[in-house]
Amino acid sequence: MTDAARYVLVVGHARRADTVVAARRVIAALSAAGLSAVLPAEDDEHGAVLDGAGPLLTLGVDVQVDELELAVVLGGDGTILRAAELVRDGTAPILGINMGHVGFLAEIEPDVLDDAMRRVIACEYEVEERMALHVAVLDEAGTVAYETFALNEATVEKAARERMMEVVIEIDERPLSSFGCDGVVVSTPTGSTAYNFSAGGPVIWPSVEAIAVVPLSAHALFARPLVVGPEASVAIEVLARTDGTGILWCDGRRSHDLPPGARVVMRRSDVPVRLARLHPAAFGDRLVRKFRLPVTGWRGPATEGVS
Questions:
Q1: Alpha carbon separation from 172 to 181, 235, 236, 262, 266 (Å, rounded)
Q2: pLDDT one-digit tens code per residue, 104-145
Q3: φ, ψ for residue 263 (rounded to 5)?
Q4: What is the pTM (predicted TM-score) of this model?
Q5: Which domains, and CATH codes, for the chain?
Q6: Catalytic site positions
């Protein structure tokens, strides 16, 4: 009787030499331990670069997404968001190895790659579930024209730089405010350190399940960032009087055109995104490390018996 096959998806950037070197190390470690490396189907160039690194299988051809045990991602947050797309229909958690700059979603740096692979092979990691958004676009007749998900954020933006778009924000099927703007960012806690953060929205701890709504350059007296509960329904209607079209972007990767009258409804998805964690740490420590926040002079809590 043989052990069940173990498949690990390897996602990286084929045009970066450091990523290719790291991917070869990952594949070699998996192969030496009897695990099979799987590459995304569209990564023909990556496969060519890694030819000879070990036996390689193709996702969707040799291995289906529900057969994956884990996804090892070499890159920054953009690459991790791409991996979230690839494993969306399965249950494989994502382990991010930061080959980018901030790499807020990444778990480890490349200098501890060998130890990380040892722990991956031994299944010595925890799985953290992150809230995602279900995003639906409805036309003027109320018919669903497009559906997707977002791990970081869904953004309704104007399509033409020289024009504003007119929108109404709705919370739990009740109108809140209408105004002209450049767009609106609707973010998860995971995405609160991404576009939401750059737009002036609040940083939300991952343990706080909530949805942030942040208008972009709004012409209105009441257009402040909002934080609503995780079960809230957030809708943005592109008013018919809007001059031109808008566009929906989800995680900066998937887009859909929004004609005047379109309605975008966002609510918590029933399917979370799963992240593999080797070193569970306080979210505040991650903020300090990734954003290089100044903490010089911090004394820490008083020890027991010291006033």
A1: 21, 8, 11, 18, 10
A2: 888 888 889 999 999 999 999 999 999 999 999 999 888 999
A3: -135, 125
A4: 0.90
A5: 7-130+273-291 (3.40.50.10330), 133-268 (2.60.200.30)
A6: 77
